[in-house]
DNA sequence: CTACATCCTCTAGCGGCTAGAGGTTCAAGA
DNA sequence: TCTTGAACCTCTAGCCGCTAGAGGATGTAG
């Protein structure tokens, strides 16, 4: 019925030390313990930890997850705040994509270097002098 | 003729503690010192630090920059290795863009939540159960 | 009852900085 | 020449989100 930390780890794909870390920073509640002080988890903890893992995979910061968990535990409130957190995160993600796309274009230009001696290498030049490249300002 | 660490900082937009940190980890050579132990930089150091800063902005890791600097200091070698480092980095950047784009789409679906009570909120559901969403595996 | 996989706590480390304490140096102005 | 005070110095500790390892205890299958 109850799970060891290792079983919880296997079911959620979250590493054992990470589970303990989440408990330490208060993302996961302290589970019950056996007489020998080993942690035993309830099946619901799988769901909560999956929530955390998925949110982390999506790039939510721990602090944001903490907020989401707080809101999620209060089923009668409007989900406007949840919406706001997600929207803020979406904006960050879009910005990051824009910056990486500019970067990708710049790297692609750089990679067109044609293997002469270092002293002629465009990559080195571009890195040494920002003005040399068509850099999209950020 | 020589620059204080503050002037170097202003010219390169790299913060003073970061310059000292780069020296500590061996990215920047130890500069000359005044009698009172204050650092004095040569104009060439501006160029080297700009190289480092730009490479960092482009997302190169310190270790990669160390390699690039080593290669750049050896003007007679083929720049094939430089090319390889950049290409590997380009691949990473492309992968990151792909993952973020999938994430963006997922977040956009989530944001279409229509502000009812938390218990109906799609965002919470999606986070709680990975299977609910059309997630691009990575 | 034994073996041994898994668990426990605790501490330290990673990358890439950033911040602060507490003290010293340097250059400009009086 | 002296005095300010901004900028410098070193050192230590902290940030995030884990990850690794030491050294020892527990739990379960055979």
From TrEMBL, chains A, B:
CDD domains: HTH_CadR-PbrR-like. Transmembrane segments: none annotated. It holds the Pfam family MerR-DNA-bind. It comes from the Bacteria. Residues 1-71 form the HTH merR-type domain. InterPro entries: DNA-bd_dom_put_sf, MerR-type_HTH_dom, MerR_fam, Tscrpt_reg_MerR_DNA-bd. Keywords: DNA-binding, Transcription, Transcription regulation. One of its GO terms (molecular function) is DNA-binding transcription factor activity. Gene3D superfamilies: 1.10.1660.10. This is DNA-binding transcriptional regulator, MerR family.
């Amino acid at each position: 019925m109850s799970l060891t930390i290792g079983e919880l780890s296997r079911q959620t794909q979250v590493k054992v030390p990470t589970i303990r870390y989440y408990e330490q920073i208060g993302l996961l509640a302290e589970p019950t313990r056996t007489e020998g002080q080993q942690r035993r988890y309830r099946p619901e903890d799988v769901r909560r930890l999956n929530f955390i893992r998925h949110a982390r995979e999506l790039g939510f910061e721990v602090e944001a997850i903490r907020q989401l968990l707080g809101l999620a535990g209060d089923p009668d409130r409007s989900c406007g705040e949840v919406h706001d957190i997600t929207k803020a995160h979406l904006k960050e993600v879009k910005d990051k994509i824009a910056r990486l796309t500019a970067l990708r274009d710049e790297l692609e230009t750089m990679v067109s270097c044609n293997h002469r001696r270092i002293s002629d290498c465009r990559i080195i030049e571009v890195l040494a002098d920002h003005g040399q490249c068509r850099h999209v300002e950020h």
